[in-house]
Amino acid sequence: MTGRNGTLIGSLLRDRHPDACEKDEQMDVSTVQFGVGYAVVVTEWCEECGAVDHELLDTHKPDPEEVARFL
Fold first, then answer.
1. Which residues contact 31 (CB under 8 A, 6 or more apart)?
2. Cα gap 54→18, rounded to integer Å
3. Which of 29, 48, 51, 64 is least crowded, fewest Cβ atoms below 10 Å from its Cβ?
4. What is the pTM of this model?
5. Domain count, the chain
């Protein structure tokens, strides 16, 4: 996995398939928590050839004042 940071949604696996692969791509978007913040990650994989890659879309670390409003 390269873990590229950018805007490649829908084309992460473009150069990762072998020539004979039919490119049966699947995609999942998830949030991953780190400390008090989180990251949005897109993962794409091919069920036929096993190619996989992910992309970090955004990170967010809340402002302490923002968090205090909800406590």
1. 38, 39, 40, 41
2. 18
3. 64
4. 0.61
5. 1
Distance CA 14, CA 46 (A): 11
15: containing domain: 4-68
Report the alpha-carbon distance of residue 51 to residue 57 in Å, rounded: 20
User: Where residue 2 falls among pLDDT bands split at 50, 70, 90?
Assistant: very low
Alpha-carbon distance 31 to 16, whole Å? 24
- Show the beta-strand stretches assigned E in 1-71: 4-5, 25-34, 37-46, 52-60
Query: What gap in Å lies between CA 4 and CA 50, rounded to an integer?
Result: 18
